[in-house]
Specification:
304 residues; mainly alpha; 2 domains; 13 helices; 44% helix
């Protein structure tokens, strides 16, 4: 199967993820990677504003709690059409593999109005990349699909820019067409429709994604959060001071599986709220931890 550069006979480096054009690719758009690319990536600020404004609107509706506001939140969450244009992700594990965007939106809202409602009410569920830490079923696939649809406008404008920089994308026999696509309007706080000129590959629109926005795994996953920030908090909470003044902590591998410390999003949620009551922000600590593990040439995270 040809990659994008092979398909279009591009013989120079490209700033977009060079995926295969005819099949799904096991790569995913990572919302935290998008955030970290500021200000180096010119389309990142627009993308981040779309992600943040959407989550603010949804959580504001949940916080208000009226039937009308909850209906609005559900409607907003049910508009994530399958993002096949990027050729990223696996259809079987994305929206299509989970009953469609309508069902996914409903069970995300169910979590936000039940298990994770306390996070909404205390105001620490600020970023889209936090959802996989607490919402069951939201992993790299669903996170990528949601992110792609929210930042579609930025991706499409990036693609239009690539058409100018790489004329091979539109040189015969290849073609470009104008498409009407759904986008999140961060100013109006509504889903909207915009027209974009995009390359066509095998009869389908092709949307390019900045290489730094794409990963095999999420920087912020439920497992990584549990094994680092959550367990570190549990360690300190159960630590004792010895007679000689040393802090004695139980090793993390000995803590896992104890009552209340089972692996999973429920534990992540409970420990995050427990830490918040002790005036500790585990999400901020986790953000800093992720930043500390980045390669030297990557953009450092900004603490929320």
């Amino acid at each position: 199967m040809p990659s994008i550069t092979e398909f279009y006979a591009i013989n120079r480096p490209v700033p977009f993820k060079n995926v295969q054009v005819n099949v799904d690719n096991c790569f995913f758009v990572d919302p935290h990677a998008v955030r970290l690319s500021q200000p180096a990536e010119p389309y990142a600020s627009e993308a981040v504003e779309c992600m943040d404004s959407f989550l603010r609107e949804v959580t504001a509706c949940v916080f208000e709690g009226s039937p009308e506001s909850l209906q609005r939140a559900e409607t907003l969450l049910q508009q994530f059409a399958e993002p096949w244009e990027t050729r990223l992700g696996l259809a079987t594990s994305g929206f299509a593999g989970h009953g469609g965007a309508h069902d996914v939106g409903t069970w995300i809202l169910d979590t936000l109005t039940s298990d994770a409602e306390a996070l909404v009410r205390v105001g620490i569920l600020r970023h889209l990349e936090y959802l996989p830490l607490f919402v069951h079923g939201v992993d790299r696939d669903i996170t990528s699909d949601i992110t792609t649809r929210l930042i579609f406008g930025a991706l499409a404008r990036f693609t239009e820019d690539m058409l100018l920089q790489y004329p091979e994308l539109s040189t015969a026999p290849h073609e470009i067409k104008t498409f009407k696509k759904q986008v999140w309007n961060a100013a109006a706080l509504e889903w909207d429709i915009e027209e974009f000129t995009l390359p066509v590959a095998n009869g389908k629109a092709l949307v390019l994604v900045p290489d730094s926005w794409v990963r095999k795994t999420l920087l912020m996953s439920a497992t990584r959060f549990f094994e680092t920030s959550a367990l570190s908090f549990a360690q300190l909470a159960g630590a004792v001071v010895t007679d000689d003044g040393k802090l004695l902590k139980t090793p993390k591998d000995k803590l896992v599986g104890r009552p209340g410390l089972e692996r999973g999003r429920n534990t992540n949620l409970r420990l995050t709220l427990q830490a918040f009551e002790n005036e500790e922000d585990l999400l901020r600590q986790f953000t800093l931890f992720v930043a500390s593990r980045l390669e030297p040439n990557q953009v450092r995270a900004r603490a929320a």
